[in-house]
């Protein structure tokens, strides 16, 4: 039996679990951080909640006799990725990173790349007054104190303080349509959009809508991928990699200390 741990919280992770479900000789357990109140669950076994850092994950891999780990977390889930690199290295099990490509600006886009959420917050007052903020509820404290700006913040679960003083919260989960995003941006008269470079199809509609309306988009660069770890961009490539490497690497690696 090939035991695969999929570190999840993304559409790709759910699709990977579905693609591997029911395969003879394969067992998949998917893990979620457990932060979203009503998460979209993958098929099959699910572990909810953190592992307790690299030490906890290392122990969990050993206890559960995990043979391969696929890190299919969101590109901005850098702590989980670092923990996976350390724990799999110490356990001697292979790690594959499944990470969708980032977005590329096209003709008509007015994108302002920034290295961090803090840098995004510093840039906003120079760009306008009404901000469509799509960086997640836990990013709101970074924008607190920008009292000259009005914010429309969209998130899956309600944010907790601190948050900007002039704030409207829209609880909603993608995917979104370009028509819907255009209507939303017009209704709220936003004059800029803030996003992380999440990549993927699910949330590109806001970028296309911003292009159509000629609005600047402040886009936060991804944290770097760990060096020396094999990485693929699609679920299909991940399945192919597992077919090629899962069994071979397992027989060589074992569960080292
Ligand atoms: P993070 O900062 O990298 O992780 C913080 C801690 O949460 C990790 O150290 C780990 O706890 C736990 N954790 C994170 N992902 C986990 C997973 N898939 N399974 C089990 N434990 C996990 O991550 P984050 O940015 O808070 O993201 C949390 C989750 O939301 C991830 O699963 C990610 O895929 C998803 N997500 C994130 C974003 C984003 O913008 N960051 C967007 C969409 C979805 P321990 O150290 O205790 O193991």
Question: Would you kindly provide a written description of the structure presented here, covering whatever features stand out?
Answer:
The chain has 257 residues and is α/β, with parallel strands linked by helices. The protein contains 8 helices and 12 strands. β4, α3 and β5 form a beta-alpha-beta unit. α1 packs across α8, α2 packs across α3 and α6 crosses α7. NADP nicotinamide-adenine-dinucleotide phosphate binds next to β2, α2 and α3.
Number of helical elements: 8
**Principal-axes shape call:** elongated
Helix content: 25-40%
Number of beta strands: 12
Q: For the terminal residues, how far apart are their CA atoms?
A: 21 Å
Mean pLDDT: 94
Structure at a glance:
With 257 residues, the chain is an alpha/beta fold.
How do the strands and helices of this protein lay out in sequence?
Elements lengths: L1 E6 L3 H10 L5 E7 L12 E4 L4 H11 L4 E4 L6 H14 L3 E4 L12 E4 L2 H7 L6 E4 L6 H4 L6 E6 L11 E5 L6 H10 L4 E5 L8 H9 L3 E4 L10 E2 L2 H19 L4
For this entry, give a set of tags.
elongated; binds NADP nicotinamide-adenine-dinucleotide phosphate; single chain; six-stranded parallel beta sheet; alpha/beta; 257 residues
């Amino acid at each position: 039996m090939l035991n695969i741990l999929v570190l999840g919280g993304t559409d790709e992770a759910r699709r990977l679990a579905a693609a591997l479900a029911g395969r003879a000789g394969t067992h998949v357990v998917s893990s979620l951080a457990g932060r979203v109140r009503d998460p979209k669950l993958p098929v099959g076994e699910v572990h909810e909640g953190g592992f307790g850092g690299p030490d906890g994950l290392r122990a969990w891999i050993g206890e559960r006799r995990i043979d391969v780990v696929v890190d299919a977390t969101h590109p901005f889930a850098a702590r989980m990725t670092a923990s996976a690199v350390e724990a799999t290295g110490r356990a001697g099990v292979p790690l594959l990173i499944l990470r969708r490509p980032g977005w590329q600006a096209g003709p008509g886009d007015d994108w302002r790349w920034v290295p961090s959420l803090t840098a995004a917050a510093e840039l906003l007052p120079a760009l306008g007054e009404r901000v469509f903020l799509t960086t997640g509820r836990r990013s709101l404290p970074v924008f607190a104190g920008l009292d000259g700006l009005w914010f429309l913040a969209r998130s899956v679960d309600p944010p907790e303080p601190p948050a900007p003083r002039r704030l409207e919260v829209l609880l909603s989960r993608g995917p979104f349509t370009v028509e819907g995003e255009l209507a939303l941006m017009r209704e709220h008269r936003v004059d800029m959009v803030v996003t992380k470079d999440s990549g993927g199809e699910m949330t590109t509609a806001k970028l296309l809508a911003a292009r159509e309306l000629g609005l600047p988009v402040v886009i936060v660069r991804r944290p770097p991928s760990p060096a020396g770890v094999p990485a693929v961009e699609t679920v299909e490539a991940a399945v192919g990699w597992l077919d090629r490497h899962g069994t071979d690497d397992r027989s060589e690696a074992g569960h080292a200390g």
